[in-house]
Amino acid sequence: MKRTIALEEMAMFGLSIFLFGKLSFAWWWYALLILTPDLSMLGYLANTRTGAIVYNFFHHKAVAIVVYIAGFYLNNEVVQLTGVILFGHSCMDRMLGYGLKYPDSFQNTHLGLIGNQKQKTRNEKL
After folding, report:
1. Structural domain range at position 102
2. Which of 1, 25, 52, 123 is 20–30 Å from 86 (CA)?
3. What element of type H or E holds 30?
4. pLDDT tens sequence across 84-105
């Protein structure tokens, strides 16, 4: 199932690249901006609940789609670019196994545990 999800996310990541190609920005903008949604991790400096809320907002595909559509209807390429970057980044994260966060821990995602927590769980099963 994880492979199926990763392939689906890879296809959507490709869609973000396609949509970016329809904009008038140079390609290096995509490479420069694709990791900027991870700045939302700064919310974890407050606490895990706030961190999860901020992180999940900037990694939610529906938010990305709404932003892109708003940019389309406003005929504003910067807003479209923002939507494409949010969407592409979220797809890339999911493709790599990083999901939306639960408020109890950064490592607890809707796709399962990540990082040290995942390793701890494996070791406990042994």
Report:
1. 2-125
2. 1
3. helix 27-33
4. 999 999 999 999 988 899 989 8
pLDDT (tens digit per residue) in 34-50:
999 999 999 999 999 99
Contact between residue 68 and residue 120 where contact means Cβ atoms under 8 Å apart: no
Q: What is the pLDDT of residue 114?
A: 73
Question: Cβ atoms within 10 A of the Cβ of 13, count?
Answer: 20
Which residues, in sequence order, are bridge partners of residue 113?
A: 108
Nearest CA among 36, 22, 32 for reference residue 87 = 36
101-102 and 105-109 beta bridge pairing: antiparallel
The count of domains in the chain is 1
Rounded Cα gap, residues 43 and 122, in angstroms: 29
